[in-house]
Amino acid sequence: MPGKQAQHRTMPAARFILKIDPFLIWLAMAVVLASLLPARGSGADLFWALSQAAIVLLFFLHGAKLSREAIVQGIGNWRLHLATLGSTYVLFPALGLATAALAAGWTDPLLVSGVLFLTLLPSTVQSSIAFTSMARGNVAAAVCSASLSNLLGIFVTPLLVGLLMTTGKAQQGFDWQAVQSITVQLLLPFLVGHLLRPLVGGFVERNKKLLMPVDRGAILLVVYAAFSAAVVNGIWTRLDVADLVILLVVSAIILGAVMLINVGISRAMGLPREDFIVLLFCGSKKSLVTGVPMAGALFAPAQVGMVILPLMIFHQMQLFVCAWIAARFAAEPEMAPA
Fold first, then answer.
1. Which domain holds residue 149?
2. What are the CA-CA distances from residue 275 to residues 66, 77, 92, 282 (Å)?
3. Which of 47, 125, 165, 313 is surrounded by the most beta carbons within 10 Å?
4. Phi/psi zone of residue 41: left (φ > 0), alpha (ψ -120 to 50 degrees), beta?
5. Distance CA 254, CA 235 (A)
């Protein structure tokens, strides 16, 4: 029996890690390819245009996939949503500002800006919902919290970048042109997809696997295009192993601090187990899908590769950590902070 219990506890994590590993490899390959064969001139313009088209398609499919019934079912849990949004847009930025102040002089200023930028982004949608479902949490509330975080992020993230950052196109303050670009590229296709859900929703639901290659393909295209521009501008002459180690340590500290603080918040609020899981997962994530195109709109092309590098590292770390935690909850559903 003990052997069977141990097998039951490890199998969910193993299955989930196997689903994460291939994209991690592809993401690393995109960076390597951009380092060895960066797109230049008209080729760079072509890859950037393809990546933008893929992002538009991706958000259209996300809009078509979002169920209004799930939104209505989960929207009434306003205390949980406020806690999640507070974690995403108050707690994270506060930690980002503190980290940026402490890291100044230790590594490249653009990497420091990238760390701060990732803390200003909205939460993820797909992985937050997937982890909540795996851990047997409140899936309806997770759909609502994650979707609300992303919709607000269209406006909140550029505003926070304009207020808190001094690097990029928004360095002189709030940049309405950047907001317009983000709105056209992300929010508009999302809303169109959602409005057309009665027509295309059935097809999307029947072909859920369609969303994953579009999701990952769009990110890979943007990463390749961004790192191509960064390589042309000498990214690897500015970075060394010590910079990457610093990014790993900083990402681990920020992620661990957010999760521990959210555990305390959930206890103080008296959240039930199902809602605590939503706060733990939705409140600790940062979206690579939303962050990469936002970086393209908010920062100069030569800066994007450096700025999104901390986000890429944090993204993979959050997936592995949350996969392990979700597997533990799935195996031992009675264990949760009250």
1. 2-331
2. 20, 9, 20, 10
3. 125
4. left
5. 24
Residue 84: closest CA among 269, 336, 262, 256? 262
Classified as helix, coil or strand, 171 is coil
Kindly report, residue by residue over 182-229, the tens digit of the pLDDT.
777 777 887 888 888 888 877 777 776 666 677 677 777 877 887 787
| pLDDT grade for 163, boundaries at 50, 70 and 90 | confident
* Number of folded domains that form the chain: 1
Give the pLDDT confidence score for residue 169 in this predicted structure: 47
Instruction: Report CA 17 to chain centroid distance, whole Å.
Output: 18
304 within 8 A of 114, measured Cβ to Cβ: no
* C-beta atoms surrounding 269 within 10 Å: 15
Q: Is residue 336 part of a domain?
A: no
Instruction: Write out pLDDT tens, residues 248-291.
Output: 999 999 999 999 999 999 999 999 999 999 999 999 999 887 88
pTM of the model: 0.74
Closest by CA to 13, choosing from 317, 327, 319, 332, is: 327
Q: Tokens standing for 261?
A: 């603080």
Tokens encoding 144: 């609502």
* Separation between Cα atoms, residue 304 and residue 117, nearest integer Å: 11
Residue 34: alpha-carbon gap to chain centroid: 22
Q: Which amino acid is located at 214 in the chain?
A: V
Closest CA to 148 of 41, 234, 76: 76
* Token pair recorded at residue 213: 């290659």
Residue-wise burial string across 104-132, b where 16 or more C-beta atoms lie within 10 A, e elsewhere: eeebbebbbbbbbbbbbbbbbbebbbbbb
What CATH number is associated with residue 204?
Answer: 1.20.1530.20
> What are the tokens at 198?
């009665």
**Are the CB atoms for 278 and 137 separated by under 8 Å?**
yes
CA distances (Å), origin 123, targets 73, 86, 88 = 20, 11, 7
Residue 292 CB neighbours (<10 A): 25
Going along the chain, which residue ranges are E strands?
none
Per-residue confidence (pLDDT) for residue 158, from 0 to 100: 84
Spatial separation of the C-alpha atoms in residues 288 and 87, rounded to whole Å: 17
